[in-house]
Amino acid sequence: MSFARTKPGKGWFATPLFQTVVFAVCMLLTALQSQAQNATPILDFANLVFEADELSQSEDGETILLRGNVIVDDGTRVLIADHLTLNRLENRATASGNVTMDLGEGQAVHANALLLDEPTTTLLLSGLSVRVRETAVLAAAKATTNGQVLTLDYVAYTACNAPCDIDLYRQRSPLPWRLSARKAMLDSRTDNLHLQGVRLELFGVPVVGLPTLSMPAPYVDRRSGFLRPVAGSETGLGTWIGQPLFLTLGPSADLTLTPVVYTEGLVRMDLEHRIHTSSLEAEITTTLDSQGRAGGLIDLSQQLSPDYDIELNLDWAGELERGTLQSLDQTQIDLHQNRLSVESLSGHSFAELSWQQDRILSDEPEWTDLNWDESGASRARYDWRLPPMDNGSRLRVTGQGLLHRKSALVESSAAWDVRAVTQGGLALTPNLEVGFVASDTTGQFSPWFGAQVGAALPLVRQDRWTSLTLTPTLAVSGLTGASVSDSPHEDQTLLSRSALFDLRSTGNPYGHASDLRADMALDVALYPHGSTDGSGLRASLGQRLSWKDTALAPAIAEVQAQTGALQLNLLAELDTWALINGDARADSVQAALPRFALQASVPLSEDIRLSGGYKRVHTDEDQQEINTVRADMQLSSQWHGAVGLGTRQTGQSALTMNVEAELGWNFIGDWVAEAAIRQNAFDVRDQDLSFDLYHRCDCLGAQIGVLRERTATETSYSARFALDLPTLFSRDVTQRVFRHR
Fold this sequence. Notes:
Blueprint: E1 3-6, H1 16-30, E2 49-52, E3 54-57, E4 63-73, E5 78-87, E6 92-104, E7 107-117, E8 122-131, E9 137-145, E10 149-158, E11 177-187, E12 192-202, E13 205-216, E14 225-226, E15 230-234, E16 238-242, E17 245-248, E18 253-262, E19 267-276, E20 280-289, E21 294-305, E22 310-319, H2 330-335, E23 339-346, E24 349-356, H3 365-368, E25 377-385, E26 394-404, E27 407-417, E28 420-421, E29 427-439, E30 444-456, E31 459-462, E32 466-479, H4 491-494, E33 515-528, E34 536-546, E35 555-563, E36 566-574, H5 576-581, H6 586-592, E37 595-603, E38 608-618, E39 623-634, E40 639-650, E41 656-668, E42 671-680, E43 687-696, E44 701-710, E45 715-725, E46 729-740
Antiparallel strand pairs: 1-2, 2-4, 3-4, 4-5, 5-6, 6-7, 7-8, 8-9, 9-10, 10-11, 11-12, 12-13, 14-17, 15-16, 16-18, 17-18, 18-19, 19-20, 20-21, 21-22, 22-23, 23-24, 24-25, 25-26, 26-27, 27-29, 28-29, 29-30, 30-32, 31-32, 32-33, 33-34, 34-35, 35-36, 36-37, 37-38, 38-39, 39-40, 40-41, 41-42, ...
């Protein structure tokens, strides 16, 4: 019989227990990452409606049976099944046949059967599965919960594009990989996840197994316990292994203890303490070994005044014996400066007063490597920026002072800049900057002045087929000289005056002498209307003229073109002066184009693509020239190949020419066998041979192969292994296994 939408009255079906256990199971199965205590019930059973093809009721009226296309809906989420039985007397509900729980946002739980027994607080799901991402699937033969402990029997997980039933292999090859467990238990009281009979399978073959494994639940962000072991080696002390222990010290602090044991008998203890509150952020790292060597790192920031945003910062590193801290993170050690500072931020303005003991203060030999017991340097910096004015202009005043070993150096500057756009689209950017540098070591006071006027005008023309944009840019800059070259401090290391007047940055942003120059650039963009394949043309050209330089600075040119499958990229550096004064000789062309690169790719047919490139560098420091051409061919549905030719010449060495060929066979599924050869055309003894097996799919990348490299003096063999399992680990190793000379 046809059954219309009916709304039952409130009863045991709407109890908080049912809502809680159903929510706990479904949230775990969908992501295993949600925190149930902060969530809302999955179904509002007090306002539930349902529909079905047939409805029957027992004589006593306590049991209701719904058959055929059963839909239970609370307006937000839906439960679907072939059959649904409600027993009001026993407080039991049973759903069977293609049970689906729609959680919204694309998440759904599938099961063969569902059983809820309120007196025993039991929820049972049989043959359940859930897609936790676009391709990843979690499945189990049975799931039970009493509201506190969730148990999954014969559970499996894979990130491959599998059917919801992971074991459903009809008309498909075995899954490349999956993780399985005989039993998984999640205890919400302790937030522990216990696994029994853990196994990793590759193509249905077990490769790794563990009898039992316990860990914090995936949704637990911070939890005391052991972390994964760490290992390494240290010169003179041998290899070492350590076991970190993570301890939570409340909501705003934690501690990591790592005992380390060396093969030579040394024992070390590392400690890392972290604090994060609304006003204090600190990270303290220390190390102590059995030989009495000790060291520590402190990185601390304490907010002194939230109203004025004033902070006290401490950045310190110290050790009893040089080299002790190298057992920790070397990069972290390099970033420490032994600095104590008070900083203030107000809008975009900044001020700092600091005392520091930096290792590197300048490039002078006697200043390069200061010991920790060396006297420190006091430093003050400020950066004051006024809000933009009504006309769009802005004023910025910056400066710094340094006092070290009774030597003082002061630098300050003020800059005013404007950006104005006319109705015709012309962008004007005038800039003015004045400043001075003073040093009591030399008694020198050096003022300087700079100005720049920049303009850019985009020109756009559109017709029926294309859109063309030309953007010429011109900037004229003038700068008076300022130098403290007699100072014991290196300007580019100590001072921070930027290359404000340059369109292109310079290697020494501070050491400008008096100069007047013009920078010009032209950008071109041409695109057809309605293009969906990226077809178009982009090009740029930049040139500088300098009053100080005896020759024009090199120009930079770049062109990128694409039309359909045809691609062309060109990049060149042009020595404009050599280009003007040179002739048609080859050496003149090389001098005019010290750097040049051209790459092109074009399809010859649906199955053949031709690509090639030319690169050359001809400077005083480096001379190299490379030519390549390659054809990639799809020979059949299972076979592909490639042939290529390349030449290389470095400096005055002889020209080398290599011929390359590849042949690949997609022999089954995602497996590919590939053989390759590279042969030096001028030396038959110079040859490389390789053979590899690849597996390529969305959830498993694998490679195993061997490479033979032969030259005139030796032959070596390398075994190549690579494995990539998403969400598990990635590892790519190439190991040389044999060498013959």
